[in-house]
Design goal:
The chain has about 180 residues and is α/β, with parallel strands linked by helices. About 50% of the residues lie in helices and about 10% in strands. The protein is built from seven helices and five strands, in the order ααβαββαβαβαα. Helix 1 packs across helix 6 and helix 3 packs parallel to helix 6. The longest helix is centred in the last third of the chain and has 22 residues. The chain is globular.
Length: about 180
């Protein structure tokens, strides 16, 4: 099979996944990220990379995001939000963060394939991406390995949230570029 054929299969899967997502949690998350003080993101592995990409774009639109675990990340407070990216919703380190955020009174959001997970049970906002988790690699939900479909759909979701914020704030790429790194 040619590489472009695989790419078309991936695009078809992404399109279907986005079409069947429920907007309820997405709308709650879109509203929450604009009303809280600081925004914290966390995730492990490739899910964590998608969360970092989201944090970068939130900074570009003028929000106040932080990546949990970075040396310059401040403390979480009650008027903040923690957004966890976790396919399984069961990653122990992320569950521990979720429990701590709830004890501190912060808003907790989860982007996941598993809306009945331990983290989802704690979350104020859950966004389900109906894709295969990495442990379901042979389930037939995706032609892609492990959690690739989830991670790709998550990046599209996060970029869509950024477009919404841009629209609401009247921003375009030129205005955002002023916040782009300039010491490169």
């Amino acid at each position: 099979m040619q590489t472009t054929t695989y790419a078309k299969e991936i695009l078809d899967e992404l399109s279907h996944t986005i079409e069947v997502m429920d907007d309820t949690g997405i709308e709650k998350l879109a509203n929450a990220i604009q009303r809280v003080n600081k925004i914290f993101v966390a995730g492990s592995g490739r899910s964590g990379l998608m969360a970092k990409a989201f944090a970068m774009r939130m900074m570009h639109v003028g929000l106040d995001p932080y990546v949990v675990g970075e040396t310059i990340t401040p403390s979480l407070e009650a008027d903040d939000i923690l957004i966890i990216s976790s396919g399984s919703g069961e990653t122990k380190s992320l569950l521990s963060m979720a429990e701590k955020a709830k004890k501190m009174g912060a808003t907790l959001a989860l982007v996941t394939t598993n809306p009945s997970s331990s983290i989802a049970k704690l979350a104020d906002i859950t966004v389900e991406i109906p894709a295969q988790a990495k442990a379901e690699g042979t389930s037939g939900k995706s032609v892609q390995p492990m959690g690739s479909l989830f991670e790709q759909a998550m990046l599209l979701l996060y970029d869509s949230l950024i477009l919404r914020v841009m629209n609401q704030k009247g921003l375009d790429s030129n205005k955002m570029y002023d916040r782009h790194a300039n010491l490169e």
